[in-house]
Amino acid sequence: MSTKTYAAFNETDPLAPHTIERRHLHAKDIFIDIEYCGVCHSDIHTAKGDWGKPNYPVVPGHEIIGRVKEVGSEVTKFKVGDLVGVGCMVESCQHCSSCDEGLEQYCENGFTGTYNSKNSKHGGITYGGYSENIVVEEDFVLHVPENIDVKAAAPLLCAGITTWSPLRHWNVKVGDKVGVIGLGGLGHMGVKFAKAMGAHVVMITTSESKGEDAKKLGADEVLISKDATQMKAHANSFDFLLNTIPVKHDVNPYLQLLKLDKTMCMVGAIEPLDAVHGGLLIMKRRNLAGSLIGGIKETQEMLDFCGEHNIVSDVEMIDIQNINTAYERMMKSDVKYRFVIDIKSLKES
Amino acid sequence: MSTKTYAAFNETDPLAPHTIERRHLHAKDIFIDIEYCGVCHSDIHTAKGDWGKPNYPVVPGHEIIGRVKEVGSEVTKFKVGDLVGVGCMVESCQHCSSCDEGLEQYCENGFTGTYNSKNSKHGGITYGGYSENIVVEEDFVLHVPENIDVKAAAPLLCAGITTWSPLRHWNVKVGDKVGVIGLGGLGHMGVKFAKAMGAHVVMITTSESKGEDAKKLGADEVLISKDATQMKAHANSFDFLLNTIPVKHDVNPYLQLLKLDKTMCMVGAIEPLDAVHGGLLIMKRRNLAGSLIGGIKETQEMLDFCGEHNIVSDVEMIDIQNINTAYERMMKSDVKYRFVIDIKSLKES
């Protein structure tokens, strides 16, 4: 089916209108009429070729909310009209030990990304959510609670699960002292989730104003990381640190904040960090770890939790025609905290 | 009591004979007649001031084996004639949460090292095992099984527990694929313990000849870390990595060997490592951790295990008069795998 999208055609030009073909429905496929799509930093990195030359044209978007318009003959989990979401993955091998555990994001044969990935089963390249619609196998589609603000739910599919998964994996619980390092798309969800899990949440940031913003999101306390006296006062006191800084940085000042046996988990910086001091790990048996998005099962658990606790992202709505301006603003960190495209603007264009 | 020792008097001169006073026995104290003392790299670092100017004269030695000669009035765990050991610690606060858990090595108020430490309770500076005798509170004294080769048991008190503790903490079990990185005093004990725990043990080394040596110690397999083809073949396959390399190095080639969710534990390099690649942590939720010696309770468990499995270190015996030559050889890694001083040579000098 002929589908309107916005696509990047090379590294330097802005995104522009484009038409793609969505595949005909297979037995397990769901045809989703997209309503909203969040704008993730990965979209920019991919469109601009920061992570290697992509398969142009790139149709970005992996924070997708929409309604089921049609289902394949063997679909059992969804029906026409359901409010659904699609995140970063649309396929995995579903038979390796990671997939068996519900950890498709760590599929040993590699998952298929929602855009710019080779689709091993159906052929071609995947196209994401800056689009009128999408076809996805039901095992990679999520139920979205109807009671939350739907447009603000889109970023849950990437920024949300990326922070939810490590908070759950490292068993953050009531009363834990949890530090969220950095306040952006990921960090603001980290604060909301950790708070909802009952933790004492500390926003760790270089910026006083971001600290104030974090308090409005639910942070109990602010730690200004460039203030050596404050950092020393919080040494050896944290049960978990969620490090959302998206670029290379010195992790050592943060490591010393952890209690014995506790973990700092990286979710942003997929690049070399500054030299880690072995002594900071050895002297308190600390752990430096990383975590990648989340599995389908835990993404559903997160969405259900968001429904129960009325949690969504803080978003700024845009029309698809303003996507390039949104990219420019994101590169200056000028958004609180996620842009979401109203796909109606694409459909009516 | 006036006690013969060997001590370092400044950063550059060799160790030389010296006389110190051991304290009179307090109620909980044990007077130990030292028979053997292992020679640890920490002894050299401290004697030479590599870790900051020490409190000269330094009497090194924290791998001590001896017999109880006298006990204080309230000692309950030991009697005259018992074969005992003393490791890296002679005191801790014994009331913080770490001490309560039997993790005195992570005492929140700082443990007292066996040598070159301020003795907060009894005053003065601690003097170690290059000595005829030592006085230690019973809570920091270990029972040594009588059935093992006593002189070769000395290195268990530091090199042994330093490798035992992380293997236990990260729950190495029968059938696990465990890599021991580096073959020295620590690495050779790591191989023996991991093998005795039922793991499939892989020696990871740059040196073919060390690989062969590791097989004689029980390693099932050798992985030459500078061979990219071998490293690739072992990618994502290890359940645990024990990294005993004592100096700054690139940990990234090792991290990629770990399976999903698994840990590499540093026990050697108490200094900045080369830049860690965040992606290696994130993409497989891997952990980079560290571990420091071990608590008193687990040190006793290790010694009991060594008694049951007849495990000791591979040692080269020396007289105290040859300690300076031993230091020179250790700095060239010319020992398999630990020097142990026969303290009789000191007593009869």
Automatic annotation (TrEMBL), chains A, B:
GO molecular function ontology, one term from the record: zinc ion binding
Keywords: Metal-binding, Oxidoreductase, Zinc
Enoyl reductase (ER) domain boundaries: 10-341
Cofactor: Zn(2+)
SMART domains documented for this protein: PKS_ER (SM00829)
Pfam families: ADH_N, ADH_zinc_N
Entries under InterPro entries matching the protein: ADH-like_C, ADH-like_N, ADH_Zn_CS, CAD-like, D-isomer_DH_CS1, ER, GroES-like_sf, NAD(P)-bd_dom_sf
PROSITE patterns per UniProt: ADH_ZINC (PS00059), D_2_HYDROXYACID_DH_1 (PS00065)
PANTHER family: ALDEHYDE REDUCTASE
Family: Belongs to the zinc-containing alcohol dehydrogenase family.
The name this protein goes by in its record: NAD(P)-dependent alcohol dehydrogenase
UniProt organism field: Empedobacter tilapiae
